[in-house]
Amino acid sequence: MRPNQFLAFRFSETDEPFNSYIFWNHETGEQFKEKIIEPLSLINIFIGQNNSGKSRLLRELVKKQGFDYKTENYNFQTFCEISKSMEPFLKSAFQKAGNNISGVTYEQFFEKYSKSMDLFIPYLGKEDPLYHLQTGLNKLINNDLIRNGRIYFNQIDIESMFKTSLAKLKNYKFNLDIFKANKFYIPILRGMRPFTNSSNNFYLNRTKQDYDLPESYIFTGLELYEDLTNKLLGKPDGRKAVKDYEDFLSKYFFDGKEVTLIPLVNSDTVEVKIGDEKQYPIHQLGDGLQNLIIVTYKIFLEKERCLFFFEEPDLYMHPGMQRAFLEVLLKHNHHQYFLTTHSNHLLDMTLDYQEISVFHFQKKGDGKETKFEVKPISTGDRNLLQDLGVRNSSVFLTNATIWVEGITDRLYLRVYLEKYLQELEKEGSKLYEGFAKLKEDFHYSFIEYQGSNLVHWTFEEGSDEKINALKVCGNPLIIADGDVAGKGTRIEDLSNTLGEEKVIVLDCKEIENLIPEELLKRHKKVISEFGEKLGEIKISEYSQRKTIGIGGYLDKKLKKTNTFSDTQTGTVKNKVKFCEQIVEDARNNFDSWKLPNELKELCKNIFEHIRQANS
Q1: What is the pLDDT of residues 42-91, one digit of tens each?
Q2: How many helices and strands (H and E) does the chain possess?
Q3: Residue after which a domain boundary falls, among 254, 277, 303
Q4: Is residue 377 part of a domain?
Q5: Peptide bond preceding 596: is omega within 30 degrees of 0, i.e. cis?
Q6: Are residues 167 and 261 in the same domain?
C-alpha cells in the first residue's frame, strides 16, 4: 500500500518567494484568498509557456521546509489541535523543574514555541515532528535533557504524549513516515559527460550557487559514474541493486533486451551495452538514453519515501518512452513527484489515470508588477495544447489503431491489457516476450468512434462522401458492442472491407458486461446496495447479456428500478465515474483479480493485431 501523499500546501503571507503567485481554487474556479496549491496527487505536472513561473515555484517547493499541509489522513489544523492538547504535559514538566528550565519559564516557552507552532510544524526533510519537538526542547535546556539529576523530557515521554493526545481524536490516522521523505531536485543542467577529467561536480556546484539549494538535494547525473563504481566494487547488496536497475531498464524501456552499465576503468564516463549490440560510451548512444538513466536512477534505487522534483524530465525522449517513464512513476508510488514540462504526450496520459494533477501557469502583468497564476485544470483542456504550440502536424501516427466506441472502452481495455501481460508473465507464456514490447503511443493508439458515428467513416479508397479513416490512421482493428445487431449492415460492410479478423463484435451488450466479478463486487455503490446479497452477482450471468447492460442486470438482481440504470437498455448510470472507480481499484489491487476467458481472448486478439501491424 502506498504511503500517505501530500494533497495541499498552504504558504504564509509573509513567505516572500510565493508573494508573486496567485493560486486558484479547483472547486469554485475562483482565486484563493490565501496561498494554497491543491489538489496535489502522486504526480504533479506544472505546464505553461516559457517564463510563466513553473521552474521558480518548483525550486521554491524544494527549498521550503515548513508548510501548512493537508494529506489523505490529516492536515495542519489537526496537528495544531494535537499540539494544544500537549499543553498540560508541558506545563507539568516545567512545574517539576520549578517553572524554570535554563532560565526559561513555561510562560516564555509557550509564548515563543507553542503558540507560534515553531516546534510543531512538520518538515519535509528526513526529520519528523517528534525529532523537532525533542530538538527544540534540547535547545531550550542547552542540549542536555538532564538537570539536577532529573529527566524532564525524553523520547519515551514525548511519544507517550503524542499517543495520549491522539487518542482523543476519533477516526484519526497518524503517520509520521510522510515527514521522513528525502528530496531530490533534478535540474535542467544535468548529464553524464564531464567536461574534464576532474571529479568536481560542476553541474551540482552551479545549481547550488544559482538557486541556493542544499547540496544533498541535487542530483545531476555526474554522480552516476562514482556511484556505480562504488556499488559494483562494494558489497553484494550494492551489486544486486545495480543488476536490479539494469533489469528494470530492460523491462520498461528496451523491449526485454539485456542492459549492462559499465563505469569503465581509467575513464570518467559510463559505458552501456544493450542486447547483442557493441558496448558504447554513453555519449555515443544519444542524449535521450542519457537523460532516461538520470531521471530514473534515484527513483528505482531509493526504497524509502522521497519527493522528486524534475525539470522537464522528458528532454530528448521519444513519445513512447515518455509514456513509459510516466508509467514508471505511477508504479513507484512510494515516492511523490513534481515536474515541469512542455510535453503534450505527458499531458495526454492525464486522461487515463486518477493520480495525476496538472497545474497551468500563466504570467500576468504589465512589467511593473508581474504575477504568476497557477490554475489546477481538468483533463482535456485544449487551451493547454495552444499554450504548448501543438498542432495536428506535430504528432506522428502509430502503426496500429484500436477503434473503440467510447472513453470507457478505452480505459477498461488499457487495464485489461496490462493484466493480460501480467498473467502471461506469471504463466511463463512464450507470448509474453513479444507482447510486452508493444507500447501505446509507439506501436498503437486508441481511437473513439462513438457508436453510430462509425457510419461516417470509410475504410476503403475512392469514397468522397465519408471520412477516409485510412488517410488519418493505419491498420485499424474495430471493436464493437454486441448490441450492434439490428443496426443495419454496418458490421457486415466493415468485415467485407477490412476482413473478418479486423472486426471484433463483443458477445455481450457492451464492455461493462465483461467487468471481472471480483472488481464489480468491490465497487462502492454495488457493496452499498447489495450488502449480504453480493454473492448473487455472477459474471456467468451478466457477461452473456446481449441486450441488457450491467446497470440493468444489477437493478434486476435488486428487484429495483433506476438504481444503477435509468435507461431501457440497462447502460449503467454515470458511466465514466463508474468506470474510473473500477479501473482505479483494478490498478491498486492488481493481484486480487483475474481476467475472465472472454477478456483473455479479446486481449490476445488485440495484441496479435498490434504485433502484425508493427512486424
Answers
A1: 999 999 888 889 999 999 998 876 666 677 665 666 656 666 666 676 67
A2: 23, 21
A3: 303
A4: no
A5: no
A6: no
SS3 259: strand
DSSP letters, 312-333, are -TTTT--HHHHHHHHHHHHH-T
Cβ atoms within 10 Å, residue 308: 25
Residues 194 and 261 in one domain: yes
Per-residue cell: 426: 506469471
Determine the pLDDT at residue 397: 58
CB neighbours of 7 closer than 8 A, spacing ≥ 6?
Answer: 38, 39, 40, 41, 70, 71, 72
Rounded CA gap, 413 and 430, in Å?
A: 22
Q: Give the H/E segment covering residue 376.
A: strand 371-376
Tens digit of pLDDT for each residue in 536-548?
999 999 998 888 8
pLDDT at 262: 92
Least confident of 104-113, 273-282, 543-552: 104-113
Q: Tell me the C-alpha distance between 196 and 320, whole Å.
A: 34
478: burial class by Cβ within 10 Å (0-12, 13-18, 19+)?
Answer: buried
Give the C-alpha distances (Å, rounded to integers) separating 450 from 170, 409, 411, 503, 560: 48, 10, 14, 16, 29
**One-letter amino acid identity for 560?**
K
